[in-house]
Design goal:
single chain, globular, alpha/beta
Length: about 250
């Protein structure tokens, strides 16, 4: 943030200097005009000065942006998510439980779902986030029992509520994580996670909401014994994937 502030100050100073130079040169040309002098050289000088100064400004801005990009890679996850909130269920609560993100960047409840989100939205709203990452759906897939249309209808209603309550936030929807095969016998609906995610991605496209596909980052080594929740080592991997998509 400090570098961005410095960049904005530098831009303002440079633009003010350019404007002052132009004003002084125009006044000088005005005096020449009063004596019926040829002003073509003066005008050419102004145009030259403008192009040179603007080029210098752009070069400085470019250098600052490159520095910002480098520092962004070096910043901790907590810093990168300082203006973001992960809103979700017990799976998402691992971000705060394992101290991957600050508590102010995680709003998650065990058992949270698309029918039980009023408290989550209100708490998120109070934090005034610039970005909201949604991590819901695990509990709802089991409840929907294979009814993908019902699931999408509920998710769409939730998105509408969130957009109305926090209109200035950019929203990203995480794909629902697959469960391990041993879970299928007790909860067969989890076999359809790919179909649920395909429908969820279409919903996001229609609402112009970002969709984050986490399928490629999930590996058996990251799962807890229940086949649904994840070990501590997974959360930094997940956070990095979200940060990359959202350009944090």
């Amino acid at each position: 943030m400090k570098r961005r502030t410095q960049r904005n100050i530098l831009i303002g100073i440079c633009i003010a200097a350019v404007l002052l130079l132009i004003i002084l040169l125009i006044r000088g040309i005005g005096r020449l005009t009063a004596g019926h002098a040829d002003t073509s050289e003066g005008i050419a000088y102004i145009e030259n000065a403008e192009s040179e100064d603007i080029a210098a400004i752009e070069e400085k801005i470019s250098r600052l942006e490159e520095q910002d990009g480098t520092s962004g890679q070096d910043r901790s996850l907590k810093e990168r998510f300082s203006q973001a909130v992960v809103l979700g269920d017990s799976v998402a609560s691992g971000f705060s439980e394992y101290n991957i993100l600050n508590a102010s960047s995680v709003v998650a409840d065990t058992g949270a779902g698309l029918d039980r989100y009023d408290s989550l939205v209100e708490r998120t709203k109070e934090l005034h986030p610039r970005i909201v990452f949604l991590a819901l759906g695990t509990n709802d897939i089991a409840a929907a029992d294979g009814d993908i249309d019902q699931f999408i209808e509920k998710y769409g209603g939730f998105l509408e509520t969130l957009q109305n309550e926090i209109p200035n936030a950019h929203i990203f929807v995480n794909s629902v994580f697959p469960a391990q095969e041993k879970v299928y016998e007790e909860e067969p609906a989890f076999e359809q996670v790919p179909e649920y995610n395909a429908a969820l991605e279409q919903l996001c496209d229609s609402r112009r909401v970002g969709f984050i596909d986490n399928t490629a980052i999930v590996e058996d080594q990251y799962y807890e014994d229940d086949g649904i929740h994840f070990k501590e080592s997974f959360f930094s991997v997940w956070a990095e994937n979200m940060a990359e998509v959202a350009a944090l």
